[in-house]
Automatic annotation (TrEMBL):
This is NADPH:quinone reductase-like Zn-dependent oxidoreductase. Residues 1-224 form the Enoyl reductase (ER) domain. PANTHER family: QUINONE OXIDOREDUCTASE-LIKE PROTEIN 2, SHORT-CHAIN DEHYDROGENASE/REDUCTASE. Pfam families: ADH_zinc_N (PF00107). SUPFAM superfamilies: NAD(P)-binding Rossmann-fold domains. The lineage of its organism: Bacteria, Pseudomonadati, Pseudomonadota, Alphaproteobacteria, Hyphomicrobiales.
Amino acid sequence: MVPPDAVEIMPDGLSMEAAAAFRTNYLTALYALGERGSLKAGEQLLVLGAAGGTGIAAIQVGKLLGARVVAAASTEEKRNFAASFGADAVVDYTKPDWRDALKDVTGGHGPDVIFDPVGGEVSLQAFRSIAWNGRHVVVGFAAGSIPALPFNLPLLKGGLLIGVDAAQIARREPEAQARVMTQLSVWLNDGRLTPVVGKVFAFEDFRAAFTTMQTRAALGKMVVRIGS
């Protein structure tokens, strides 16, 4: 059963598919970047897994907060997809020298904030590239493995490792959730934010949807439509 305070009126003009792609991804992105990561206008934001549902949301939210956004993704298709939704630069984190590319596109500065739904070795390498006083915000482990961060890295970088569990925000920080949802609604209503919908699957094709998710082949937030 869904608690009453978790139900909100769907904004006018928003399709059912866009509404399904909206709440969790964009709540996670703005809470992670605004409330926890303290992302400021003019700072540099690195988004890992940038073509996924939360990644694309983080790109859009980062731009709305005034950041310069670097999108990291594993294929050219995904990097192009991220760029089409506002990323200022892209890097391929599957390449051995990707940290050099990241250094180049950030002008030697490194990212001030890292939005990380990926995990695995790429997370460790990203933290090694973080700017002084940078904030690495962890929102998930799409790579399937949880990295172990050597404690000397936060010391040497003056960096913060920050965890975000969207499922706990409403219970533990209802005031923060209210602020985030209010801001997202403003952006939606004035046309500055349009939720990105990936491929829409019919309910009977849920196996194909699950396979797409497992293989990390999705672009944007996948949606499974129940009914016609």
